[in-house]
């Protein structure tokens, strides 16, 4: 339809060049406005009847308001994830400083852990050898250098997160989607956070307690 309309307008425009008739200078713009109005009305009609060429998602994403604002003292919420869910770039939680370096090479930065581009491996240290007693207990992903075990990366949509993980265990006050287990009013937490701007993932945190 658009091609036919465009052809007609071009034909009229060409005819006006060679035919010395008196017409308002704005005839083309007025005609275009009429055509655009027709297209817009047709688009609205298609959308209302469900025949629009571009389909929209029918998934209704969960909202923060659907979750409790608090829980009982030291109540455990959710369930622990399988160990493989905590792996990033093949590095599991509990890997030592030496194991991470042997697997990924020299880090781009060493500061409370090891950084490789947009991925940071934080360590918990126990007595003994620094390289073999420093173990990973937290991983942070800030760009698309890595994905979670289920393939989610920074920049992906919340719909993609929902398709990969399902309904969040909890949505915190900052709208972060959490999957895993935590104890209310305590430091115990084990799972994956997806920070987001309401539409897309902005940062990924993996905690292992």
Rough outline:
globular
The biggest beta sheet is recorded as: 9 strands, antiparallel
Alpha-carbon distance between the two ends: 62 Å
Task: Please state the CA-atom Rg, rounded to the nearest Å.
Answer: 28 Å
Helix segment tally: 5
Low-confidence parts lasting 5 or more residues at pLDDT below 50?
1-36, 42-56
Which structural category do the helix and sheet elements fall into?
Answer: alpha+beta
The mean pLDDT is: 81
Q: What's the SSE pattern?
A: HHEHEEEHEHEEEE
Share of helix among residues?
25-40%
The tally of beta strands, per DSSP, is: 9
Portion of residues in beta strands equals 15-25%
Describe this structure in words.
The structure is a single chain. The protein has 209 residues and is of the alpha+beta class. It is 29% helix and 23% strand. It has 5 helices and 9 strands. It has helices at residues 2-18, 27-49, 97-104, 130-133, 158-165; strands spanning 76-78, 109-110, 113-116, 119-125, 134-141, 170-171, 177-183, 189-196, 201-207. Strands 1, 2, 3, 4, 5, 6, 7, 8 and 9 form a 9-stranded antiparallel β-sheet that branches. Strand 3 and strand 4 (119-125) form a beta hairpin. The termini are far apart. The relative contact order is 0.14. The model is unreliable at 1-36 and 42-56 (pLDDT under 50).
């Amino acid at each position: 339809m658009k091609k036919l309309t465009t052809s007609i307008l071009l034909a009229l425009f060409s005819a006006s060049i060679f035919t010395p008739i008196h017409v308002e200078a704005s005839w083309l713009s007025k005609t275009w406005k009429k055509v655009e109005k027709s297209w817009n009305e047709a688009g609205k009609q298609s959308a209302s009847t469900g025949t629009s060429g571009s389909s929209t998602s029918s998934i209704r994403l969960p909202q923060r308001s659907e979750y409790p604002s608090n829980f009982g003292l030291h109540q455990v919420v959710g369930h622990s994830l399988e160990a493989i869910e905590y792996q990033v770039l093949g590095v599991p939680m509990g890997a030592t400083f030496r194991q991470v370096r042997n697997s990924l090479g020299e880090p781009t930065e060493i500061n409370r852990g090891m950084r490789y581009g947009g991925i940071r491996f934080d360590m918990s240290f126990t007595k003994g050898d620094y390289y073999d007693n420093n173990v990973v207990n937290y991983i942070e992903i800030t760009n698309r250098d890595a994905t979670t075990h289920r393939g989610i990366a920074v920049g992906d949509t919340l719909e993609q997160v929902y398709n990969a993980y399902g309904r969040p265990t909890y949505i915190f006050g900052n709208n972060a989607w959490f999957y895993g287990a935590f104890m209310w009013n305590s430091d115990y937490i084990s799972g994956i956070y997806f920070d987001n701007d309401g539409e897309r993932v902005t940062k990924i945190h993996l905690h292992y307690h």
